[in-house]
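User: Continuing from earlier, I have the next pair ready.

Assistant: Great, send them over.

User: Here they are, in order.

Assistant: Folding the first of the pair now:
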Amino acid sequence: MAERTIVVDGLTLNYEGIFSVADLFQVIENWLREKGYDKRETRNQEHVKPSGRYIELLLEPWKKVSDYARLVIKMEIYMHDITDVDVEKDGRTLRLNNGKLSIVFFGFLETDYELRWEARPFYVFTRTFFDKLFYRAYTKEYTSLLASSIYELHTFIRTHLNMYKV
């Protein structure tokens, strides 16, 4: 089984107000593509309730940094009470959404994700030995790269959402 090291655990972004759901998804997708991540959407649910729509989305984009390690960002996106509103800006009417948004970020460093070192107990021992002695510098570099990427994405989304505040 691939070894997962937790790098970022539960970094949360909360927002309440006017925003565009479609623009938010587009901004996230563009950022991931720009940084070289492959997007994996594991859950996408939408429920219509009397108070508004409830949208739940689970994204797990990953980026291969070597044949042995990859970076995984897990994003849990929850949207509550999403309603459509018309906003007039610069003489034009825009169709936006109003509601509550919560995004929880997790970051994992997966090593031996292709399970090459799992066939025999000796291989597992050898992998652990190499991880502790030789790959420590690489692991440290990868964890700092992942943490900085997650904090950059968090700031990027927060900045995008703050553009909608009046």
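And the other member of the pair:
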Amino acid sequence: MRATRVLIPACALMMAAAAPLGVAAQVQSNRVPPTSAVAMKSSFAPVVKRAAPAVVNISARRLVRQQTDPFWQLFGLGAPRARIANSLGSGVIVRPDGIIVTNNHVVENGQEITVALADRREFPARILLADPRTDLAVLKIDVPAGERLPVLPIDDSGDTEVGDLVLAIGDPFGVGQTVTNGIVSAINRTPDDDGASAYIQTDAAINPGNSGGALVDMDGDLIGVNSFILSRSGTSSGVGFAVPAAVVRRVVETAAGGGRAVVRPWLGARTQTVTAEIARTLGMARPQGALVADVWPGGAAFRAGLRQGDVVTEVDGRPVTDAASLNYAFATRRPGDTVRLTVRRDAGREQTLEVRAEAPPASPARDERTIEGQNPLSGATVVNLSPAVADELGLDPFAGRGVLISRLDRGFAVGAGFRPGDIIRGVNGRRVESVRELTAALETPSRGWQIAFERGGQLITARF
């Protein structure tokens, strides 16, 4: 039986009557955090006392639509049925004025979001920013004037090491706040090549309901937000992952500054991990770094002098292990920063390049629309594809011009088998490169439809 990646699901609210934040109330001593390994073995209570009051429960109510047969929808019949789904997760207070960070999947599409504090008070919350790429969301609650809530300091120093003791704090299964302990099993885990996040792996028990909870070090500082597990059973098997504090801080700062989306700097180069075979071909002593496969004309990397065939081995003096770690190192910088790349070129000659961190190109304009009418794409929300849109959705920024399906909520497109992320390339033999061209092609009367689209690098033609 294979282990699968499982987003730590939010628990049913029928269990929410359990004491939401009991641990913090139970710790009453005035002890300080342990300063030695011997002290750590005796009790984690001082660390819990500092951290637990800033961990909250989050409940969300969302409207779930159940699709009916798309055939009847073509005739205006069979409207989608709707039901209310309730869920429960965790969150961390990171600003005393009521700013809270959690997982995006805890509050995604939530119509009503409620936050329960350590003292059992409940507040309605609103979403300031949602970032599906990192599975983070930032919420805001309005607290009484002059009140300052307990917070967890964000430690993004980068000093976390494999073997460090950590605590995971959250609300598993809705039973009330729970603390589990473990160690940092690995750092910079990058299951996705896009490098939006490089996770901290821990063996501290993380279960359903822990989504958005805190991973803290022995100073009681936030080093990560618990996000997902690898498990055969759907419950903890000692392989959990947390979004690291460096990513958390970027998302929180963006939201607190009024930003509606996280702008990630883009290197402007497509890279691949240096494998053992590539290393032998290039005469490298060992496989390390990211091989540059393509450079975006006129982009930051192009202007800095990065070339196809270069191997990036360091970013600001820190080793690059693979393509994902390079993308992550660049994505956690701020737009405008200068980043130093150490590059292996030609016969092993090393060179240092300075690249200015900047947002990916946003041309052509988005022009986001929902397709209407009696056609196979009816109900799909589409957008013009640009490097900025592709980067935002975790797709290949080098995919070129086209029309991207960004969302599917209803209509014939759902039953027709289309998916978010599909790139529409043509309609009835007519090439389309923009939303305007697509809508014009779909408005042309036709007895049958032939839709050419790209999925996972494969070109597919579907007939309807």
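Worth noting for the second one:
The chain has twelve helices and 26 strands. Residues 269-356 form a domain with the Pdz3 Domain fold (CATH 2.30.42.10).
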